[in-house]
Write the structure tokens for this entry.
Amino acid sequence: MNVLFRLLVIVSVALIPPLAVQVYNEIDARQTRDEVGKADVLRLARVVASEQKQAVEATRSLLTALAATQSAQNLDQEQCRSFFATMRRADPRYVALASFDLTGQPVCADSDPSAYPNVADRDFFKLALQDRGLVIGVYDPGGQPPARGFQIAEPFYDKTGRISGVVMACIGLDWLDAQLQQLQLPPSGTASIVDRNGTIIARRPQADRFVGQKIPEGSHAYMLSGGEGVRDSVGFDGVSRIYAYAPLPGGPDGLVASVGVEKGDFLASEIAANRRGVLAIGGGVVLALILGWISARAFVRRPVAALLEAADRWRAGNLGARVALGGGGSEFDRLGSAFNALAEDVASRAEELERRVAERTQALEEAMQTQHETQAELRRVQKMETVGRLIGGVAHDFNNLLASIVGNIELAKLKLGDGHPLTPRLDAALHSAERGARLTQHLLASARRQQLRPQLVDLNAYIRSMQDILQRLVRSDVVVETDLDPAVQPILVDHDQLEAAVLNLVLNARDAMPKGGTLRLQTRNVAFDGTAHGDDLIGDFAALTVADTGAGIPPEHLDKVFEPFFTTKEIGDGSGLGLSMVEGFLRQSGGAVEIHSAVGKGTAVTLYFPIAEAAGPEEKAGEYTGIEAGIGRILLVDDDEHVAGPLRDQLVDLGYSVMLASSGEQALTMLAEARAPIDILITDVVMPGPLNGLDLAQAVLQRLPDLPVIYITGHSEAVAGIATGQVLLKPFRRGALADAVRRALAARQTKARRTAQAASRSMSDPNR
């Protein structure tokens, strides 16, 4: 047995006392928690008993009043019945009130006394005459008056002081059951009220199942002993519970309240605490053994080995051998110094650990502080993301429908001619389709999924140019004022979306001032350092504020005004997309929007646009001036036959030869089998199957790198993955299609001509 093992045995033996103390503490803590849990269950039973005590005391007062009435004997039969009926209706707990003479015959009742049977053999009647005080009867299933319930009775006396009868109040079991339903119990808990015969007269839950049953004889004995207590028992439903029972505090006898709680309901924390205690004990033992092993190897094995080596040398006759421990001190001194060094090292590590824990705690507190500030923004972003995905999908399908409608209308107009009587109606349908396309763009803007075309805009110049238009847009009783800071720098935004945002805000302001007012547009430069607007705005911005003096927005609506489809206007007066479109446009442009409003004073909406870093080339919209027929062979790919059919007919009408495919795989097959080369590939971007439009274009360009590609899509997000080629967003007009095809063919011809010229120069160069 080596020294390390011996030291581990010593450490293990030393751990036995503290381990035993810890185990004892855990057992004691478990017992304490068990007692606390039982005390809680007993407290619930006392609460139920106290509530029933209150009901009994209230009934005592009622019976005293009824007994006084009977003793006076100054009421005729009808007056007595009316008085009893009035008293019963005044309190919903009672289902019957009656008085009986000494033979058990009814004297007066809340209804016809003849409906009441003789009660001479009833438990409550006998007890009232015997005890000469307030008594509680037993469970009565009903069927005849007294109705279904339990009775509380007391005798009444004549003028000479002799008992002349018994007055009784029957408390309904339905009322008693309703009282139990209001009790706060664990999910598997039960509550019962038992009469002196051991019959359950109320129970929660499953009153209809258990009311009327007798409790087991063993339970009957201790529950009706007159005291209170707690016992482990198995209930009627086969579940083991802790049952606490308590009689009515201060009497009378006859009712016992019982509450049962499954151990798992109130011992869950105890079990978890015990489990943590066991883990802590086991972990402490393992950690102590590991530290003992490391310490023994570091501080004991080496000096002991040196001593053994010296002893071996002495035994071999080398008396000059010495223990090579160094330092000139004894072995114990060196061991003490080593342990001191170890203690200092452990202390320094503990201080370092405490410092790190403090730093980590501070960091966690700061993180928790910021968490509350970001939760609202996170929920809003998640909601907007969900709505955006839904809107993006709906817009894609809607654009496909509009593309089919626009294409077929234009084909119909082309076939009918300008003078046909149906042409105005087709123009109206085409106009409606274009309005649908604009509505789709508004939906995409509110979801931040539209394709923006940023241009360099002088905000002051734009507001000046719009001032006359805005004055005409609002009523004559609304004054339009401007406050333009000449130092405001240009911004880079989508001009059309900017105009839509400003018009939305102006129209909202106009509607908020039905009796007139002032509309004020103000510009200024602002700088953000990241501490405002969700810590996402940093740098220089141009601010445009649209303020009105209207009715204002209630505070409870301010957090919802930017949500899609939320509106405070009447049904039919607004779609709820205006402010959500404005916010989506600003967010997508790298800016932000904020709103301030006071009821009765007005509303101010401020748009923050990033300052343009440098003036770049303005992007021009794809305009066309005329439709010209062309020549060429086109491969058209679209999975929607309602879109592909009109599109093919339009291309054929323009003079092109068209090959139509409904999927990327079919398009590749047709391309491989084609007898003549194609001049343009026109493909939808979003298609089902292994190949979408981008994958198809990549596969085709690997074979034909100079082939022009025109992408068509109703899903604006798909445009982000397109690096080269033209894009037509559905729905588009016939002229836009013709213009895109013509530009693609012209670009290909220009590229081919330049390639030929370069090859000609290369051949004529004498140095090659």
In short: The chain has five domains: 54-175, 179-264, 390-443, 454-610, 633-760. The longest helix spans residues 331-416. The first strand starts at residue 94 and ends at 101.
